[in-house]
Amino acid sequence: MNIVFFVTGLLFVSGIGYVASNNRKGIKLTPILKMIVAQLVLAFLLLNTSIGIDLIRFISNGFDALMKLGISGVDFVFGGLENTGVSNFFLDVLLPIIFISVLIGILSHFKILPFIIRYAGLTLSKLNGMGKLENYIAVSSAFLGQSEVFLTTKKQLGLVSKKRLYTLCTSAMSAVSIAIVGAYMTMLEPKYVVVAIVVNILSALIVANIMNPYELADEDDLPLTQDETDKPAFFQMISESILDGLKVAVIVAAMLIGFIALMNLVNELFLWVFHLSFQSVLGYIFAPVAFLMGVPQSDIVQAGGIMATKIVTNEFVAMLNFKEIANGLSPKTVGIVSVFLVSFANFGSIGIITGAVKALHEKQGDLVAKFGLKLLLGSTLASVLSATIIGVFL
Fold first, then answer.
1. How far is CA 87 from the centre of its chain?
2. How far apart are CA 93 and CA 99, in angstroms?
3. Of 16, 30, 41, nearest in space to 392 by CA
4. CA 146 to CA 81: how far, in whole Å?
C-alpha cells in the first residue's frame, strides 16, 4: 500500500508541476529519476538502518546539548525563569537560537561550513547535471536559511537569468535554517527533522526541473568565488552572530504572536458564522492532498488542517498546533506531516525572499516578486514530495 501512495503522491506533484511548467518539452526525466532514487536510498538509510538511526540519534543528542548550553546563557540573564516548572516558548525554544547562531558564525569564519557546503553541492551536481550555483544554493540554504544564503552569492545574483533565479529561490524557500533546527526538535520528532532537511534539498531541485527546466552552457555556470575583503574580525563576527540570532528569535516570536492571534480571530469568526472553525475548513480542502501523500483516511482532515496552517501562517504556528494533536494521530501521519512542516514554504516567505534579493539587487528582487505565488507553489510541491518519500518507509 505504501508503494501505491508513493505513486499517487508522485503523480500529484509531477502533474501539478507539469501544468505549471514554463517549458514542458524541456523536462528531462533522467536527472529527476536519479534524484528520486537518491531520496529513497537516503530515507531508507536514515530511517531503517542501524548506521542511519545512530547518526540521527547523534545529531539529535548534539542539538539537545546545544539547546541546553544555550539555555544556560538564558538562565544567567533571566534568573532561572525558564526553570520554574512552566514551559516558556520564548525562553526555552527561541532564545537558545542565539547560541547556535554564534556556532554557525564560527564555523563559517574558519571556512569549515563553506567547505562542506561547496563540496556537497559539487557532488550533487554530478548526480543531477544542474549548475554548480543551483546545487550550491540548494545545499547552503539547508544550513544558512532562505534569506542569509543570498548574501554568500551576491556577486552572482545580478548575473543569473530569470529561470535560474526561480530555481535558486525555490531551493531557498524549501529549506530551513540550521539555527532553528534545535527549536524544531522540541516540537517534532528529531528523526523527521533530520530526514526532511536532507530530502528537501533534492525535492526542491526535482520540482524546479519539472516547473522550470532550462539548458545551461558551461560558460554560464558562474564561479562560486566570494569576496573576502569585507570579512569581519573574529570578535566582530561573534557580536554580529549574536545579534543575528537575537533578530531571528524576536522576529519568530513576533510572527507567532501576530499569526496565532489572527488565526484565533478568524477561527472565532468562522465558528460564529459557519459553526465550523477556519482550520477545519482548510483541513477539508487539503484532505485530498494528505490522502494522496499516504496519510491514513481517518487522519486526513486533521493533517490537511495542519498543512494548510503552515502555508497560510508559518511552520512554527503549524508545529505548535500539531504538537497538541499528534498523540491522537497514527505514527504514519505523524511522520508524513512532520516532514511536510520542515520548510519555509508559506506566504510570508514570499516577502522575506523578495526583500532579501531586492536588498542585494533591486531588479532581480522585482522579478522574484512577480513569480512569488509560483515560488510558493513550487516549494509546497517540494514539501509534498518529501513527505510522500518518507511515507514509503513508515
1. 26
2. 11
3. 41
4. 32
Give the CB-side neighbour count of residue 376, counting CA atoms within 13 A: 18
Q: Is 101 helix (H, G, I), strand (E, B) or coil?
A: helix
pLDDT at residue 172 is higher than 70: yes
> Maximum CA pair distance of the chain?
63
Rg (C-alpha) for the chain, rounded Å, is: 20
Q: Residue 222 and residue 159: Cα distance in Å, rounded?
A: 8
Backbone angles phi, psi at 363, to 5 degrees: -65, -45
Q: Which of 352, 343, 335 is nearest to 380 (CA)?
A: 343
Task: Say if residue 85's pLDDT is above 70.
Answer: no
| Separation CA 146–CA 49 (nearest Å) | 31
Say how far apart CA 355 and CA 352 lie, in whole Å: 5
Residue pointed to by grid coordinates 530530502: 199
Among residues of the chain, what percentage have pLDDT more than 90? 47
DSSP states of 119-159 as a string?
HHHHHHHHHH---HHHHHHHHHHHHH-TTGGGGGGHHHHTT
Q: How far apart are CA 295 and CA 5, in angstroms?
A: 9
Burial (CB count <10 Å: 0-12, 13-18, 19+), residue 185: buried
Entry pTM: 0.89
